[in-house]
Each structure stands twice: as C-alpha cells, then as structure tokens.
Design a protein that fits this description.
single chain, alpha+beta, elongated
Length: 107
C-alpha cells in the first residue's frame, strides 16, 4: 500500500511508502493513477518503476492461469512466494481489484 497527497484537482502530487501528515490517503501500488504519476516523474528510472508495477499484474495473471489449469499448485511455490501472493491477494480484495474477473477466493 502507498500513501498519496493530491492537489485541489485530485491529481497525485506526492507518494510515500509510509503515512505522513501530507500523504495519508491509501492507494494500491499498481493503481493506474500511481503508474501515471511515476511515468511523469523526471529521471531515467521512473518509466522502469512504472513498468515494473504494471508487470506485477501480468505475473499475477499468469500465476492465476497456471494455478487454475492445475499446471502448478500453490504449495509448489516457495514459502516466501506464497506469503507474497497471499499479501497481494489480500490487497486486491481490500481494494476491490479483480485482475482476471474470476472468483477472487481461488488460489
């Protein structure tokens, strides 16, 4: 989860990994607003970071397909990966983000 500060028009003007007095609204790291904000930032790494965040969604979709087709099982993943998958799943449910449009309770 990230924390944002917005301008009067509602656009993100600052992001923080931790809540601050300025950044107190939560937002999912893979939110289109976050990706757009990062892509507009000066510096050579902003597009790479935005690409990484977008690619996370691709990896999640691929993992869901592999699990749904029974090509791998959840327990085939290392424990650290299982924990990260469950954390992402929890964040998606909490933020009502359904990547594949399927049953959000399936892993």
């Amino acid at each position: 989860m990230l924390y944002t500060k917005r301008n009067p028009s509602g656009e993100i003007v600052m992001l923080s990994k931790e809540p601050t007095s300025e950044c107190n609204e939560t937002i999912a790291p893979d939110s289109p607003e976050v990706l757009a904000f990062l892509a507009d930032q000066p510096g050579s790494t902003s597009h790479f970071i935005a690409s990484d965040l977008a690619f996370v969604r691709v990896v999640e979709d691929i993992l869901e397909v592999l699990l749904d087709k029974g090509l791998i099982t959840f327990t085939d993943l290392p424990e650290a990966a299982q924990a990260k998958v469950m954390e992402r799943k929890s964040l998606r449910v909490k933020n009502n983000v359904d990547l594949l449009g399927g049953d959000s309770d399936t892993i």
